Amino acid sequence: FTDAPPSTKDFESEGWVDAAFPPEPSSIHGGTPPSPQDPNGGSEAPLPLPASWRRFADLWPLESLPPVEGEALAPTVQQGPYLGDCWLLSPLAALAARQPKALRAIFSPCTKDDFAAGRVRVRLCPNGCSWREVEVDTLLPCDERGRPIFCGTAGAGWAAMVEKAFAKLLGSYAALEGGRCVESLVDLTGG
User: Fold this and answer.
1) pLDDT band at residue 39, thresholds of 50, 70 and 90?
2) Which terminal CB of the chain, N or C, has fewer other CB atoms within 10 Å?
3) What's this model's pTM, rounded to 2 decimal places?
């Protein structure tokens, strides 16, 4: 991925913005961000507020979404320093290494126009019940150096988009804290 100074762009002039999961603190912390009296929000370490939000294409200019059949998938999926979502990211790495076809199937087909507009659809099967298509914009929360603060600090950018779709499904990035690998495998593969 590429380093860049934080962006202060008007997001809507640069593409589609998901009004249901906007580039705002509510998408990080849910309904109520940590208060100044309790900056940790009752947890050991608070989730930081992003210094900027950057588009997937700006962070990973050489990576395609959805991942293209026949192209090697970046196998490195790196968890960021703030969020305990290895229960989701470890199975993603395993799918990339062992079942790349199943991993590619997580992404619904999107047109070049969709991707250029900053729109991606991820297929998830919550609790193995029924498939849902989760549509997200490609804006990712970044630190003051312009680097993703959650998944994507190194390695595969596609994993950061799956993480964002899960965060939207659960209501916030904070809701990704803690889980079980077997549950995410069900959510990712349908069973």
Assistant:
1) very low
2) C
3) 0.86
